[in-house]
Write a structure and sequence with these properties.
Blueprint: H1 21-26, E1 32-36, E2 39-42, E3 47-50, H2 53-56, H3 65-77, H4 90-102, E4 109-113, H5 116-133, E5 141-145, H6 165-168, E6 176-179, H7 184-187, H8 194-212, E7 217-222, H9 238-249, E8 252-256, H10 270-273, E9 280-283, E10 295-299, H11 301-314, H12 327-342, H13 345-361, E11 369-375, E12 378-383, H14 392-403, E13 406-407, E14 409-411, E15 414-417, H15 425-447
Parallel strand pairs: 3-13, 5-6, 5-7, 7-8, 8-9
Antiparallel strand pairs: 1-2, 2-3, 4-10, 9-10, 11-12, 12-15, 14-15
Length: about 450
């Protein structure tokens, strides 16, 4: 029987991720019923600002009528069809052409999936196919950076050694190489400047390649700005240095833009913000503003040519996904990109982003704040961790922010900001006013006798 709207009894039939399952089963979750712009409303009529775009995905906010209409039009014309067996739909072809023209890779080709996890998983699968058919079947290992999150599949979950995931789910790790996150704020040695820190990070990467055996390493996957690690913005020159090093060993560079793609960092793609040249990219989340599940793999021409040669060898490329290139998903994604261009969302981010960065910087010197950082329309406030209780302040902030009507993603003691791209300067101020009230509440609670 369904629960009454305001019941405190558990509605325990649905597994909710990133929770303690027992607690999620016996306590009713926050149930969101409506959304408009940057605001959400729960089942009790309480309003919240969604300050991290619902897992960094709702780039155009909630209830954009043009995206709703794009979905309805496609639903009426052709609601479902699978791309495969020499068949596809116009929206998938048009979206592939559009992404190929936008992406900062040469002679781009595009494949579709449903989620960011799938896109990264499929890309690694493609890499293994390509390398096997070019006489390098041993090149299967993938380098990832500690605390970066690249997905939830058996292949992607171990990437980056995200805390506890591989161990807890008993996932294979033999083909994963983990190197340090280039987090200068937290990982620099005393007296180490950024240039020296970069040199050390690159030296560690090279040593990891040598230890693994360069001939066994196929690719490195990275997110240019790692929100999963607490919005880590790479030091100047790091990503260019990574590219140069990988080229020396013939290792591919996979750019995970699932979170950072489509204007978040002040460029259409974060690779452009940091001058990085990837071999392949993965896109999701803002690709459709999360209005319909879709992701994309963008491959440069040389990588794709390897797939085509392998397909000739086998007589077929034995890969497809039922919802890869789904007509409604593709139509919504295509309209999302059109809206980004028509409304000059990139220019908007460049105008509003500095306001967010000023707000973050204004917390310098606050007794609870260790560091603030950001780029474009993303950022983080890292709190001082309590002695022997890492993450406790983050949990306290989570509760205090919800009490103020603010939803932000907390990573241990770091609070991430990534509001919908449509946010105005006035809304940035309101978001930050709610945050500072929550911060003050946590501070008061800690000094209370």
């Amino acid at each position: 029987m369904l629960m009454s709207r305001n019941s405190n009894a558990p509605d325990n039939r649905t597994l909710i991720g990133f929770t303690n399952l027992r607690q999620a089963r016996i306590n009713r979750p926050l149930v969101i019923e409506k959304g408009n712009g940057i605001y959400l409303t729960d089942e009790n009529g309480r309003e919240y600002i969604e300050g991290t775009s619902s897992f960094y995905s709702a780039a155009l906010g909630f209830s954009d009528p043009e995206l709703v209409e794009a979905a309805i039009r496609q639903m009426r014309q052709l609601p479902a069809y699978a791309s495969g067996l020499y068949r596809t739909v116009p929206a998938a072809l048009a979206l592939g052409e559009k992404l190929a023209s936008m992406a900062p890779v040469s002679k781009a080709r595009v494949a579709f999936a449903s989620t960011g996890s799938e896109a990264n998983d499929f890309l690694i699968k493609f890499m293994r196919f390509r390398n096997g058919h070019r006489g390098e079947p041993q090149r299967v290992k993938v380098i990832a950076r500690a605390l970066s999150y690249h997905g939830a599949t058996v292949m992607t979950a171990p990437l980056g050694g995200f805390p506890g995931t591989a161990r807890a789910f008993n996932l294979p790790m033999a083909d994963v190489i983990t190197v340090s996150q280039p987090d200068y704020v937290n990982n620099a040695r005393p007296g180490e400047d950024e240039a020296t820190f970069n040199e050390r990070m690159l030296a560690e990467l090279e040593q990891a390649i040598e230890t693994a055996g360069p001939e066994t390493v196929g690719a490195m996957i990275l997110d240019p700005v790692s929100f999963s690690a607490g919005c880590v913005v790479p030091p100047a020159g790091y990503l260019i240095g990574v590219r140069t090093l990988l080229d020396r060993y013939g290792i591919l560079l996979f750019d995970d833009e699932v979170i950072t793609g489509f204007c978040r960092t002040g460029s259409m793609f974060a690779a452009q913000t940091f001058g990085m040249r990837p071999d392949c990219m993965t896109l999701a989340k803002a690709l459709s503003a999360a209005y319909f599940p879709i992701s994309a793999i963008v491959m440069d021409g040389d990588f794709y040519d390897g797939l085509e040669r392998g397909s000739d060898d086998e007589g077929i490329f034995s890969h497809a996904a039922t919802y890869g290139g789904h007509p409604v998903a593709a139509a919504v994604a295509l309209r999302t990109i059109e809206i980004i261009e028509e409304r000059d969302l990139l220019g908007h981010v460049r105008r509003v982003g500095p306001q967010l960065q000023r707000c973050l910087a204004s917390l310098a010197g606050h007794p609870l704040v260790f560091n603030t950082r950001g780029v474009g329309l993303g950022g983080a406030v890292q709190l001082h961790s309590l002695t022997d209780a890492a993450g406790a302040r983050g949990l306290a902030m989570q509760d205090a922010m919800m009490a103020e009507g603010l939803l932000l993603r907390v990573v241990k003691d770091t609070v991430n900001f990534a509001p919908p791209l449509i946010i105005t300067e006035a809304e940035v101020d309101e978001l930050f006013a709610r945050f500072t009230r929550a911060l003050a509440a946590v501070e008061r609670a800690e000094v209370r006798p």
